[in-house]
Amino acid sequence: MASGAQASPDAAQSEPKPPQGAAGGGLDSPELETANYPLMIVGVMAASLLQILDTTIANVALPHMQSSLGATVDTITWVLTSYIIASAVALPLTGWLADRIGARNLFIGSVAGFILASMLCGIAQNLEEMVAFRALQGVAGAFIAPLSQSFMLDATRPSRHPQIMAVWGMGIMIGPILGPILGGWLTETANWRWVFFVNLPVGLASLAILIAYLPKRAKRRRRFDLAGFLLLAVALAAFQLMLDRGGHVNWLASSEIWVYLLLTLSATWMVVIHFATAKAPMFDRTLFADRNFTIALAFMIVIGIVMFAVMALLPPMLQNLFGYGVIDTGIVLMPRGVGILVSMQVSGLLMRRGVDARPVVASGFLICAVSLWQMAHWSLDVDEMHVIISGLLQGLGMGLVFIPLQVSAFATLSPALRTDGSSLLNLFRSLGASAGIAWMTMLLARNIQTSHADLGANVTAATGNLIDFSTTDRFQALGDTAMTIIDAEVNRQAAMIAYIDDFYLMMWITLAAAPLALLMRRNKGPAGQVALSE
């Protein structure tokens, strides 16, 4: 009954095996030729960076939006939720739309739609308009990341794939770091609307470059798998709603969350059965038959959990517990991006010289685990240098993981499957990030309460050196002030303990992921030579 989402069997059999180099016919020729390769890369990267920045840049502006749009604390979160859900639901459509209307047309249309939606968000007058425009922005932005990755691979010689993935990875990995910093600076110095208006000049420049130099990719006839898409859309939307609403309604204590959970589980089960049995499912089953690609999907979930959860936890911790300002927080977190830049270049060079990707990926996860171990030993007296060193170390580890993983995942995929493969990798990273942030935030809130109760039970008159609680009533307002100060300090200590618990958990997740690299197939020879072995 499925309507299908891939080319006919004859067309699939005629697809060239990578990397034949359609443009030049040689083993090391790009699949697509462009009139100005460097400028095309700039345009593609500018669009990609704008999209990834907008996943986090609006977070710090929410309090200002709330008062301006007349929203409540609960309803203002839909500004973020609408973007996340729309993006997650639209992302699986990337491959089919690229084949149906042309990848070039889809990419240019996505960037244009993203710019238009950003402008509309900046002029929104009420919450309803903002939620609708953010959903439009999420749909348009969903196609940018996978298309940018596939176009950069197709327009680059296979031997240069590690380097070009390092360039692409910089935007993907550094964007979430710069987003809150840029958003906070724009909100403080100008207005929250500039969080969206800042997309216009860069986006228009990127759009002009893409119209001039983005190459065309051949279209393929693909039927649309309507049943598969609807089931997947229900699963993704319910999952994202569960993660977003859980913290507001006390998770499984609410019937609303149970509804989302049951929808997620049942729809996911039906999606698996449908994709396994349908004659022509939305995603080609050969994608999941590739061991390296399947393991890369699992790693993307771990990267999403660890990297994005850490970046969600650190800014409020530094600002609320250590008294850092927005700019100071950005300066302290910036070395994380420097570490990513350095290690991505190193890992790209290693891949080009034929170094086995498996130990590089495993080493990257181990380095990340060491940085999280350091963070788990922080206290309220930790200084800036310790924060900088841990961030730099974690950036070095993440950079070592990302490039070898991307190169290994795409090494044996046909160029015709790159867009679908890229959309799945981006989807799994996004799901990992959403789940990781929700999970760590939930544990943080619960551990703060538990630690506060444990610490508060030991703050009594018998502990000495604090205050004789039996006499506080005679001091009236001063006594209340003293109790408030003591409670605030207990809160700070409890929060620090809760952050440490989160860092320990992420450390163990990272350590558990490292051995998975050994299950990947080994690359034999430099990048550009598709030779893999056990």
Which secondary structure elements does this structure contain, and how are they paired or packed?
Blueprint: H1 9-13, H2 37-53, H3 62-69, H4 78-90, H5 94-101, H6 103-122, H7 127-142, H8 144-154, H9 161-189, H10 194-197, H11 199-213, H12 226-249, H13 255-277, H14 286-289, H15 291-320, H16 326-352, H17 357-375, H18 384-411, H19 418-456, H20 477-513, E1 522-523, E2 532-533
Antiparallel strand pairs: 1-2
Helix pairs in contact: 2-8, 2-9, 2-11, 4-7, 4-12, 5-6, 5-19, 6-7, 6-11, 8-9, 8-19, 9-15, 9-16, 9-18, 12-13, 12-19, 15-18, 15-19, 15-20, 16-18, 17-18, 17-20, 19-20
Number of helices: 20
The unreliable regions are 1-25, 530-534
**Within the CATH hierarchy, at the fold level, what is the topology of the largest domain?**
Growth Hormone, Chain: A
Number of domains: 3
Mean model confidence by pLDDT: 84
Q: Mind telling me the CATH superfamily name of the largest domain?
A: MFS general substrate transporter like domains
Query: Which H/E pattern describes the elements?
Result: HHHHHHHHHHHHHHHHHHHHEE
Any key phrases for this structure?
disordered C terminus; 20 helices; Growth Hormone, Chain: A; two-stranded antiparallel sheet; disordered N terminus; 3 domains; mainly alpha
Notes on the protein architecture:
It is a single chain. With 534 residues, this protein is mainly α. It folds into 3 domains: 35-223, MFS general substrate transporter like domains (Growth Hormone, Chain: A), CATH 1.20.1250; 226-281; 287-534, Growth Hormone, Chain: A (Up-down Bundle), CATH 1.20.1250. It is built from 20 helices and 2 strands. Strand 1 (522-523) and strand 2 form a beta hairpin. The protein is globular and about 75 Å long.
